[in-house]
Design goal:
The complex is a heterodimer of chains A (314) and B (145). With 314 residues, chain A is an alpha/beta fold. Chain A contains 15 helices and 7 strands. In chain A, helix 6 packs parallel to helix 7 and helix 10 packs across helix 11. The longest helix of chain A is centred in the N-terminal third of the chain and has 22 residues. The N terminus of chain A is likely disordered. Chain B has 145 residues and is of the alpha+beta class. In chain B, 19% of the residues lie in helices and 32% in strands. In chain B, helix 1 crosses helix 2. Chain B is globular and about 60 Å long. The mean pLDDT of chain B is 91. The chains are: A alpha/beta (314), B alpha+beta (145). At the A-B interface, helix 6 of A face strand 2 and helix 2 of B.
Chain lengths: 314, 145
């Protein structure tokens, strides 16, 4: 279009329509990957997240399916959009929320969801307090999540079998309806502990059948927890003094035997407490000149002060 | 009507154009959302030009990212009121603006009755004129059946 559509009085420059380069249709998997830049997210996922091998494998499979679907679409081989609703089960601190955020990124890059934002909700955000309150509340959340990912944490709380007048059932029904009819617009990810999700699905078979991907997040091994600890420290510019890493390993060994161990979350909390002890150790040395090295080193003594060492024998 | 030969209600944006299709409406909604507007759905069966405030269908929708959410609400409203006028409005909450910035009709009754001119004699031979909507001769909910 060389002719301007209209000219603003007084302006000298002619209006030129912006030239949009026509994207050539991708023909190989490599071209789709290059166009969508999904590989960088997958690489990041592999690099940043320790362990979780079965989860990574499943995500790679899903990404492969979506790439092949894109190629098929260019040959007119239309397939029904795959159902991508997922269920993440696993113990606390195994990275369910983190993976959900990455999942949204991957789906967005592949053009499966339009916006790629994550709306994270719990029972309180979906279920109302009185009759007629639940439906608008659930719908509002669904509308906010359109074009992205709806992440329902601890989804089993939605269904309370002990109270037959509980409004959670209403929320589940609306959710099911939208999951079925608007799967192009929205991906729902449920998350929760394995055993309680299983009972939840038993009482809601409709929910189970509408969720295509059930991903189980395994617990981390001690080596993986150590690696996670290393990364957390590196992120906040700390490091272990020589020998302190072995002490931390010994700490983890004891902590694993205690109840309520929450994987990566417990590691984070332990590191936070170690930082507190390091700070008060340095604080007590009033006249010492502290350089960057001293300020960022965690000593074995900081770790050994934990009460875990008194309570549990290896 | 001389000024409106097609006999269609002309209020808001795009009202002299043929009815917008759903993809076109979606594109308009997305444009508004990208600008940070909050959309709301309203309906009425009394389309008098001075009837500024129509009935709200649900709350205004803040914090949306994608047009599909608004379209969902619009479809629900169309299902409930297939023979009403329905319009979408975009509210700009920018400080100092704080007003409706977009508004257009997305649903019309099958036949639009239009308006007549009502005359009233006052003070001898003086005349007063007003616009009267034929639809409002009938009671509410029976106007466009």
């Amino acid at each position: 279009m060389s002719q301007p559509l209209y000219v603003i009085p007084g302006s000298t420059t002619a209006i030129t329509a912006p030239m949009v380069p026509e994207a050539s249709p991708a023909r190989t998997v490599g071209e789709v990957l290059a166009q969508s830049q999904v590989e960088s997210v997958l690489d990041e996922l592999g690099r940043d997240l320790v362990g979780l091998v079965p989860v990574k494998q499943r995500i790679a499979d899903i990404a492969a399916l979506l790439v092949i679907d894109r190629l098929r679409a260019q040959h007119g081989l239309q397939a029904q959009a795959p159902s991508l609703h997922m269920c993440f089960t696993g113990n606390p601190g195994t990275g369910k929320t983190t993976v959900a955020l990455r999942m949204a990124q991957i789906l967005h890059r592949l053009g499966y969801v339009r916006k790629g934002h994550v709306v994270s909700v719990t029972r309180d955000d979906l279920v109302g307090q009185y009759i007629g309150h639940t439906a608008p509340k659930t719908k509002e959340v669904l509308k906010k999540a359109m074009g992205g990912v709806l992440f329902i944490d601890e989804a089993y709380y939605l269904y309370r079998p002990e109270n037959e007048r509980d409004y959670g059932q209403e929320a589940i029904e609306i959710l099911l309806q939208v999951m079925e009819n608007q799967r192009d617009d929205l991906v729902v990810i449920l998350a929760g502990y394995k055993d309680r999700m299983d009972t939840f699905f038993q009482s809601n078979p409709g929910m189970r059948s509408r969720i295509a991907h059930h991903l189980d997040f395994p617990d981390y091994s001690r080596d993986e927890l150590l690696l996670i600890g290393d990364r957390m420290l590196a992120e906040s510019h700390y490091h272990f003094a020589p020998g302190a890493r072995d002490t931390f390993d010994a700490y983890l060994q004891r902590r694993l035997q205690q109840p309520h161990f929450a994987n990566a979350r417990s590691v984070r909390n332990a590191l936070d407490r170690i930082r507190l002890r390091q700070a008060s150790r340095l604080y007590s040395e009033r006249d010492r000149v502290l350089d960057a090295q001293a300020l960022s080193t965690l000593d074995a003594s900081d770790i050994l002060a934990s009460r875990v060492f008194n309570e549990v024998q290896p | 009507m001389m000024t409106n030969p097609t006999g269609r209600l002309t209020q808001g944006q795009f009202s002299f154009l043929p009815d917008l299709t759903d993809p076109e409406i979606t594109a308009q909604i997305q444009y508004g959302l990208d600008k940070g507007y909050a959309w709301s759905v309203e309906y009425t069966d009394d389309p008098h030009p001075r009837n500024t405030y129509w009935e709200m269908y649900g709350m205004p929708m803040f914090d949306l990212q994608d047009a599909a959410g608004v379209m969902m609400e619009l479809q629900a409203c169309r299902q409930t009121f297939p023979q009403h006028y329905i319009r979408l409005m975009a509210f700009d909450s920018t400080r100092g603006v704080e007003t409706i910035t977009m508004s257009f009709i997305v649903n019309r009754p099958a036949t639009e009755h239009g308006f007549g001119l009502a005359r009233q004699e006052v003070h001898g031979r003086s005349m007063r004129y007003t616009v009267h909507s034929y639809a409002t001769d009938k009671p509410e909910a029976e106007r466009y059946t």
